[in-house]
Design brief:
Blueprint (H helix, E strand, L loop, with lengths): L3 E8 L10 H16 L8 E5 L3 H5 L4 H8 L7 E4 L5 H14 L5 E9 L7 H5 L14 H16 L3 H15 L13 H6 L2 E3 L2 E2 L8 E10 H4 L7 E10 L14 H14 L8 E3 L5 H10 L8 H6 L16 H4 L7 H14 L12 E8 L4 E8 L4
Parallel strand pairs: 2-3, 2-4, 9-10
Antiparallel strand pairs: 1-7, 1-8, 4-7, 5-6, 8-11, 10-11
Length: 386
């Protein structure tokens, strides 16, 4: 298998983008990444695009063809990848494997979602849960994650204030990100006193409904310097599956798919969690960010809340988490999230993250979860190949 490098990245603004169409968003991100990479259209051999539900959100299927056509890249093959909120992470993985195998030399991995075109996104998002045993019984994603939060609080003594710190730190970072949906700082009190959603979660514990797109250009590492002086190398790409429904979990305070994917990624990269300088985690709800801190190995099980309370996840902390603002503040257009995470890590490792830059970042990681943990993709990137 060949080494793979990222040579170009781009992301649109995330938010309620009423004046931007689905095809405009993905075209802006894709063409932006191509321009950043220095490649020409003739160099591209394939595209892999993460998208959860174009049919439900914008009443459009056959998205791959639409994207290739909209970007003016016909007739190269374009493949849509779906894994709920992990669609972007899996599109990235498909692109990496296509290049690593030698089947293609230069590809685009992208993600897009236009969620605000529907009156209520909740039913569409709920299709990522177990329909028969969860959604059709009235369970929503906030309620499922609320059960996970309540159990974690019961078993480990995690406090509501500790949980709120996940959102507080994300907004602190998002305020420095020009592409973020929310660029305002918040306090623990504001989180606790915001509108209740599903006890113990309030509005400010929850990621928003978002529109947006992101893209990266991947190529064989041996060719990377032909296009850019600052390639970022893929050190590991790992994926794992878990039960789609909470009722089949051995423990709803642990996402096993995260633990397995992380272990595989560390082994592939030849590192430990202590070597990771900056991480983008999947905090669709504050509890998922807290669980990621534990399941990725940054803190012992049950100690994630303490790590948040002590400021260990801040940009200048022991293990910086979500300098982009994460899903909570940067936004969460489902299919685009995994790619946006990768773009943020590339900017961090290049030293191009401006006011949210993690000093001296050389190794970065992304963590992208589908549903409540039915799918997880973990990627590790480095300024050097190994």
């Amino acid at each position: 298998m060949r080494d793979v490098a990222i040579i170009g990245v781009a992301q649109t603004k995330f938010g309620e983008l009423w004046s931007n169409s689905f095809r405009q968003l993905i075209s802006d991100a894709g063409l932006g990444a191509i321009e950043d990479s220095g490649v020409g259209g003739k160099d591209l051999e394939a595209m892999f695009v993460g998208n959860m539900s174009g049919g439900l959100f914008v009443q459009q299927e056959h998205i791959a063809s639409l994207i290739a056509d909209s970007m003016g890249l016909l007739p190269i093959p374009c493949t849509r990848v779906e894994a709920a909120c992990a669609s972007g992470g899996l599109a990235l993985r498909q692109g990496i494997m296509a290049v690593a195998s030698g089947y293609h030399d230069v590809v685009v991995a992208a993600g897009v979602e236009k969620m605000t075109d529907v009156v209520d996104a909740t039913p569409a998002i709920a299709t990522a849960s177990d329909q028969e045993w969860e959604a059709q019984q009235g369970a929503t994603f906030p309620s499922l994650y609320a059960m996970m939060a309540r159990r974690h609080m019961y078993e480990y003594g995690t406090t509501r204030e500790q949980l709120a710190m996940m959102s507080v730190v994300n907004h602190m970072n998002g305020a420095k990100n020009p592409n973020a949906q929310f660029r305002n700082e918040i306090t623990v009190d504001k989180v606790l006193n915001s509108s209740p959603v599903a006890d113990p979660l309030t509005l400010l514990d929850c990621s928003p409904v978002s529109d947006g797109a992101a893209a990266v250009v991947l190529c064989a590492a041996e060719k990377a310097k032909e296009f850019t002086d600052t390639p970022i190398y893929v050190r590991a790409s790992a994926q794992s599956s878990g039960t789609i429904g909470l009722h089949n979990r051995r423990d709803i305070t642990t996402i096993d798919a995260t633990k397995v994917a992380a272990r595989k990624a560390y082994e592939m990269a030849g590192i430990t969690v202590k070597d990771v300088d900056v991480t983008e985690v999947h905090d669709c709800f504050s509890i998922n960010g807290l669980l990621a801190i534990e399941d990725l190995g940054f803190a012992e099980k049950g100690k994630g809340g303490i790590a948040l309370e002590e400021g260990q996840t801040m940009i200048d902390g022991d293990f910086p988490i979500n300098p982009s603002g994460g899903l909570k503040a940067r936004g969460h257009p489902l299919g685009a999230t995994g790619i946006a995470q990768a773009a943020e890590i590339v900017w961090q490792l290049r030293g191009d993250a401006d006011k949210r830059q993690v000093d001296g970042a050389e190794i970065g990681m992304t963590h992208n979860v589908g549903g409540t943990g039915g799918t997880c993709a973990v990627h590790i990137f480095g300024r050097d190949k190994n």
